[in-house]
Amino acid sequence: MAAQTRTYHHGDLRRALVEEGLGLARTGGPAAVSLREVTRAAGVSPNAAYRHFEDREHLVRAVAAEAQLALARAIVARVDATPPGLPADAASVDRLRRVGLAYIDFARAERGWFELAFATQDPQASEGIVTLDDEVVAPFQLLLDALDAMVAAGALAPERRLYAEWACWSAVHGFADIAVHGPLQWQPEPVIDALAAAVVESAIVAVRGTTAPV
Q: Which residues of 18-43 are buried (b: 16+ CB within 10 A; e: fewer)?
């Protein structure tokens, strides 16, 4: 019996292909995303994909953008759970803490999407900004916003703000990678949780330049 094909309304096929790519990446990472596999999963011919994606790279970048948004949503959900009633400076620090912990937790829970999310960065990107298709990626923007809010709340000295995002991201991303791919992946979850919290706190102390509470 011939394989069943599906009919999509205008614009629906591109979205369907990206969704299939997300499903493949979730379990297989970036390597699992291919034009052949996403069209097979969507029930259309491979040629149909070329109406929406010039080649595999463009498909992977589109799927990566969705993985970035999934990470951003996880961060926002964690930040939105900041306890009410905290002083503005303490709340701003707690939000930065939550950005880091959400990033690590996402990497551990969604390994395939995490591997894909930052696998397509433009090597020509400049001025210290992480971009995807010439836009600042949502998770990185959330980090920038959290640091700016700390300055506004008096929790971070303005002179320490410059490039603080890179200190934070390097620490958190490096730990997430070790937790997902390195020897920590075999440690009990409570151990990883405790180490993740310690790394995030160390990053906060480093960018603030003090261990004094706010």
A: bebbbbbbbeebbebbbbebbbeebe
Question: From the DSSP assignment, how many helices (H) and strands (E) are in the chain?
Answer: 9, 2
Q: How far apart are CA 173 and CA 196, in angstroms?
A: 11
Q: Please name the helix (run of DSSP H) or strand (run of DSSP E) that holds residue 35, with its range, or none.
A: helix 35-42
pTM for this model (two decimals): 0.86
Is the Cα dihedral 44, 47, 51, 55 positive or negative? positive
Q: How far does Cα 189 stand from its chain's mean position?
A: 21
CB proximity list for 102: less than 8 A, separation 6 or greater:
74, 75, 77, 78, 79
> pLDDT digit string (tens) for 75-133?
999 999 999 999 999 999 999 999 999 999 999 999 999 999 887 554 443 343 444 45
Return left, alpha or beta for 29; rule: phi > 0 is left, psi -120 to 50 is alpha, else beta: left
